[in-house]
Specification:
Chain A: It comes from Streptomyces atrovirens. The complex is a heterodimer of chains A (92) and B (308). With 92 residues, chain A is an alpha+beta fold. Chain A contains two helices and three strands. Chain B is of the alpha+beta class and 308 residues long. In chain B, helix 5 crosses helix 9. Classes of the chains: A alpha+beta (92), B alpha+beta (308).
Chain lengths: 92, 308
């Protein structure tokens, strides 16, 4: 992925299960949909061991609710269906 | 033995399909050949050899439910199982399955509507408990036994540990009255009569009374893990609510109800994925990693809010 600002390549880092992309040039950070909420939630979990109900995280824009442990949508599997998932749809 | 089962089952299904099978030229197809099920089709008849540990009395009760709920479940051709090579065999009319090469055409609305109807139907006979949690526990036990040192095993076991005992198959389910399918996926839907008939649910092996949220939890888990598109999840959930399904509130956030079972299905699916990858000596693919990552993100389960 290329940085939308300076066009340098972006590298993926995993921060507590949240994947963030950081530009190797300007060091800017790209967050997929829902990742900001995930990071905010992780931060609150850090200071507070028993977090409140999962779906409470505010959404950046209207979307179907999802659990706090869920993955950000619009990320890696958003549009094309992975072959492995195609198989999973039909198995126990 | 398994090696003898397929030819015997093939001969059996031909004999069941025709009065005089020797004169027929119909094609025979093996629809499934797994450890827990062998399924063979000949002309319009399908014979299924069930898992070696299937209980004849329990399977008969589950067949009775399918017989009594036509329009929701595919009714069997014969009301009781027969025995062949030490395996229980049941007989079914052939129906057209969902095209595995075209999952975009998957009948999400029909699946959800059939589940809602099943969940609303009074059990026509006493049935054993739905086997979903027991099957999930089996997948976790297999993971522990076959991949104790795999790096993905710890997060999956962590996710499993967050679950209430009923979702791990360690205690009776809190609902003992609602009819559930127990193993919903896209392979569990067929059109009967073939091609143009209505969609029906098949495979009663795990059917029983239990927590209906379990039947929504596999699509819910796929959606939560970022695998199922939000649109497909929305269509499924909306159709379930429109048909008056009792597992989720009619509007608002469904996750209070779905959280625990969707965690269980995520952990089960991840456990199966890791077990299979280890057996094949390959790394996890992207989809499988997304299940394990979801397991790693799971905090403690919050008890569902009392219904008001």
């Amino acid at each position: 992925m290329q940085c939308p600002k300076c066009r340098a390549p972006m590298h993926t880092y995993n921060r507590n299960g949240v994947q963030i992309e950081q530009c190797s040039g300007c060091r800017g950070i790209f967050l997929d949909y829902g990742e900001l909420e995930s990071l905010t939630r992780l931060e609150s979990q850090w200071s507070q061991p028993a977090p409140p109900a999962p779906p409470a995280a505010p959404q950046a824009y209207p979307a179907a609710p999802a659990p706090a442990w869920g993955a950000p949508h619009g990320g890696h599997h958003g549009h094309h269906r992975h072959k492995s998932f195609g198989h999973m749809l039909f198995s126990s | 033995m398994t090696t003898d089962l397929l030819p015997a089952l093939t001969a059996h299904v031909m004999a069941t399909a025709h009065a005089n099978p020797r004169t027929c030229h119909c094609a025979t197809a093996t629809l499934a050949a797994r450890e827990d099920a062998t399924v063979v089709r000949h002309a319009g008849t399908v014979a299924k050899a069930h898992a070696p540990d299937a209980d004849p009395a329990e399977l008969t009760l589950r067949l009775t439910v399918a017989t009594r709920l036509p329009g929701i479940l595919l009714p069997p051709l014969t009301p009781t199982p027969t025995e062949l090579h030490g395996r229980l065999v049941t007989h079914w009319p052939y129906g057209t399955p969902v095209d595995p090469d075209d999952p975009d055409a998957a009948p999400w609305e029909a699946a959800a509507t059939l589940l809602a109807l099943l969940h609303r139907a009074p059990a026509p006979t006493a049935v054993p408990p739905m086997r979903g949690p027991a099957k999930a526990a089996h997948a976790i036990a297999l993971l522990r036994a076959t991949a104790p040192d795999h790096p993905a095993t710890a997060p999956v076991l962590h996710a499993w540990a967050t679950l209430p005992p009923w979702a791990r198959g360690e205690a009776p389910m809190p609902d003992t009255a609602t009819l559930c399918h127990g193993d919903l996926h896209l392979g569990q839907l067929i059109r009967h009569p073939a091609h143009n008939g209505p969609w029906l649910l098949i495979d009663v092996d795990d059917l029983g009374t239990g927590v209906p949220e379990w039947d929504l939890a596999r699509p819910a888990a796929w959606y939560a893990c970022g695998l199922l598109a939000p649109d497909e999840w929305h269509r499924f959930l909306t159709a379930y609510r429109t048909a008056g399904g009792p597992a989720v509130p009619p509007d608002g956030d469904p996750w209070t109800a779905l959280d625990a079972p969707a965690r269980a299905l995520t952990a089960q699916t991840a456990a199966r994925a890791v077990t299979k990858a280890v057996a094949a000596g390959r790394p996890l693919d992207e989809v499988e990693r997304s299940l394990v990552d979801a397991c790693a993100r799971m905090g403690p389960v919050c008890p569902p809010a009392p219904s008001s």
